[in-house]
Amino acid sequence: MSAAAARRRKQRAAKSGDSDPVQVRLDALLKDPSLTEEAVAYEALQLAQSSVRRNVKIGNFTQATEVAYSSSLTLLTKSGRVSVSSQLLMGLVQVLTETHTACTQKWVDRFTELDAAYRAALEADTNMDSAERGRLQRLHQQFLIKGLKWSNDLGDLRHGSLGMHSLLADQCWNMSCDEAVIGTEAERQDAAASDQDEEEENLEIELRYDAVTHYALAEKSSTIIEKLKTLGAPTDEEMKMGHECPPAQRDALLTRAVLVLLAIENLRDATKLISSFWKDIETRSPDVLKKSYLDKTDGKAPSHVMFVSMLLRICEKDVKTAPLFTWLVRNFGVELGTMHQSSIIKTYTTKIGRVYFDIQPPPSMMGMMEQMMGMMGGGGGMGGPGGMGGMGGMNPAMMQAAMQAMQGGGM
Question: Which residues pair with 130 in a beta bridge?
Fold first, then answer.
C-alpha cells in the first residue's frame, strides 16, 4: 500500500471515529464511577479537549461540537467538578464559533441544560470557598456572554437568541444576590466608606442593570416585574428634589428596562411592563404623581414611572411630537444623571430620538450609539461612566401636552 493510500485510510478511519484511542478512553472515563475524583475529571477534560481539537483539524465539526457538549454535561452531572467543567464549556463556545455552527433552537436548549447543570453542581458543593464560588460565577457569566455573542453572529435574531438573553439575565440577577460575588453587607459598607473603585461599590446595581437589559431583550417583561417586586419602595431621600444619591433601585431598573425596550422598538412589551408596574407595584396613584410632576414646589423629584409612561405615549404618536420628546428628556435629565451608567442611559435616549422622531445625534454620539446597540448581542459589557447634563426649565405648556399625550394612550 502506498503512503498516500495509507494516509487516506487513516483519515477515513479518523472521520468515522474508528480505532480512536483518545475517544475510546474518554468514553470509558465518562462512564467510570471514579469520575467524581479530581484527577480522573481532569484526565477526562484533557482527553475531551484533545478529541475536540482533533475533530476540528480533520474537518469533522459536528463531532467536535458533540464531544464538547456531551463531555461538558457529563462532567457537570456525574463528577460535579464545576472548575473542571468550566474550562470545557469555554472550549464549547470557541468551537461553535470557529466551526460557524448555526445557532438553532436545539443548541439553545442545550445551553439551557448546561446552565441548569452548572448551577446545580455549584449549589451542591457546600464546602466550596467563597472566593472560588465567586470566580466560578463570573466564569459562567463570561461563558453565557460568549454564547450570546455566538447566537447573535450565527443566529437568525437581531441582538441574539431570546433564550440566550434569558439565561444571561438569570445569571446576572443571581450574581447580584450572591455574597460570594458582591460581598457581604459589612464588606460593602466598608467599601463604600473607603476609597475603593466606584465599579466595585456599584457591582450589585451594575449586575441588576445588565439583568433587566437582557430580560428586556428576551421579551420577559413579566420576569422584570417579579424581580422589581422584591425591591423596596423609594425612600424620602431618594424622592427628594435634587437628591444626590442614586434613585431607588426599583425605579432605576424600571427606567432602564423601558428605555431598552423603546430603543429596540418593542412598544408591546414596554406597554406591558409599565401597565404591570402601575397595577402590581406602584402604590401612589397616577393622579398624585401627575400633580407632583407639575408642582415643582412640593420638594419631590419627578417620578420614574411617570417619566416612562409619558415617554411611551409620546413614542406612540408621530414625528411631530419631537419637541415634546426633547423637552421631556431634558426636563428629566438631572434624575437620569443620578442613575448608574448614565452615559449608557443617554445613549438609549439618543437612539429613541433617532428611531421615533428622526432626531439625528451629533457625530460624536453616533459611533458610541451603534457600539452600545451592538453590545446587546454580547459583543461587550453593558456599562460605562458618564453624565447626563442639567434639567431644563419647567415649561407648563409642554408639561400639559405630555400629560394629554399620556392620557390619550391610557395608563
Answer: none
Cβ contacts of residue 235 below 8 Å, gap of 6+? 248
Distance, in Å, from the CA atom of 47 to the CA atom of 57, rounded to the nearest integer, reads 15
Measured distance CA(347)–CA(262) in Å, rounded: 12
According to the 3-state scheme, what is the secondary structure of 78-95? HHCCHHHHHHHHHHHHHH
Give residue 402's identity as a one-letter amino acid code: A
CA distances from 348 to 63, 255, 370, 402, 407 (A): 42, 11, 10, 20, 24
Q: What DSSP character marks residue 300?
A: B
Whether the Cβ atoms of residue 387 and residue 291 lie closer than 8 Å to each other:
no
Tens digits of residue pLDDT in 99-157:
999 999 999 999 999 999 999 999 999 999 999 999 999 999 999 999 999 999 999 99
Q: Can you read off the three cell numbers belonging to residue 319?
A: 414625528
Predicted model pTM: 0.84
Residue type, 72: S
**Tell me: the pLDDT tens digits for 362-375?**
766 656 556 655 66
Around 133, how many Cα atoms within 13 Å sit in the side-chain half-sphere? Answer: 20
DSSP tally for the chain: helices H, then strands E: 23, 0
The DSSP symbol for 377 reads I
What is the spatial distance between Cα 337 and Cα 342, in angstroms, rounded to a whole number?
A: 5
Contact 67, 48 (CB under 8 A): yes
Q: What is the C-alpha end-to-end distance of the chain, expressed in Å? A: 82
Specify whether the CB–CB gap between 203 and 249 falls below 8 A.
Answer: no
**252 neighbors 340 (Cβ within 8 angstroms):** yes
d(C-alpha 337, C-alpha 389), whole Å? 7
Q: What long-range pairs does 278-284 form, CB within 8 A, spacing at least 24?
A: 278/305, 278/309, 278/411, 280/225, 280/229, 281/225, 281/228, 281/229, 281/250, 283/233
From CA 390, how far away is CA 388, in angstroms rounded? 7
Within 10 Å of residue 276's Cβ, how many Cβ atoms?
18
